[in-house]
Amino acid sequence: MLQDILLNAAAAAAGGAANNAEALSQMGFSHLMKAMMADPAEFAVSWIVLIILVIMSFGSWWYTVVNAIKNTVVASRADSVVRTFWETPNAQDAIRFMEEQPANEPFSKIALDCAQAAAHHQRHEGSRLVDALNRSEFIDRALRQAVTRESAKLENGLTWLATVGATAPFVGLLGTVWGIYGALIKIGATGQASIDAVAGPVGEALIMTALGLFVAIPAVLAYNAFVRANRNTYAKFDTFAHDLHDFFATGSRVGDAPAKR
User: Fold this and answer.
1) Which residue has the higher pLDDT, 186 or 107?
2) Exposed e or buried b for every residue in 163-177, given b needs 16+ CB within 10 A?
3) TM segments (predicted)?
4) How confident is the model at residue 197 (pLDDT cuts 50, 70, 90)?
5) Which residues contact 257 (CB under 8 A, 6 or more apart)?
6) Angle at alpha carbon of residue 166, lines to 163 and 167, rounded to 5°
7) How many angstroms separate the CA atoms of 86 and 91, rounded?
8) Is the pLDDT of residue 10 over 50?
9) Does an H or E element contain 153, and which?
10) Where along the chain do its domains lie?
């Protein structure tokens, strides 16, 4: 009889271990999707969280790819555009070269705004405009506006990346908290607190936190990379703008650049 009791206990333990193993195996993303598809009303909050995370992820990758291409193009052409401008002997040819640049090339747009400001001021010599602002001040104002405009274009999408990086983990955590809350409600209603009753709902809820981190981490890395790349471009903007101011305000650039006539 003792032997039968031991055999039954061993069989029960083996059955419990098998149930636990089966329960632990049902904690993947596929099981979460099956549960959400089976009862959309019950998982309404989980659906909302998942949709928000998908939108966040799509927007983040979109801005990451767009900004990566834009920064690569700007960085690859910056030195060539600036060098060609200063090495062109004639000022009109240099301005014409800048006009031929693509619409998304920032250095040429800064140079064109500066040239237009200098020409506008020269055309209105003797007017109230010239009396109110001298040539240097007028050109400086135009350069500041141009640099600010082109800098803002480079920052397009950074707000989205920063927002996603800061909020996506908390959005995922909301799904986790709500999922665990629902699991506890079920446990209290059924009175079953075994591992096979707890593992599935809790595991499915924790997946939301993992999804939030998967969305946030690439956004944070992309944001930091673009901020650093933009900082280098801003420094080039400032250097180029100062040289343009010296040239168009005084007729010569500080340095070794050849004068244009």
Assistant:
1) 107
2) ebbebbbebbbbbbe
3) 44-63, 158-185, 205-226
4) low
5) 86, 87, 243, 247
6) 80
7) 9
8) no
9) helix 135-154
10) 2-250
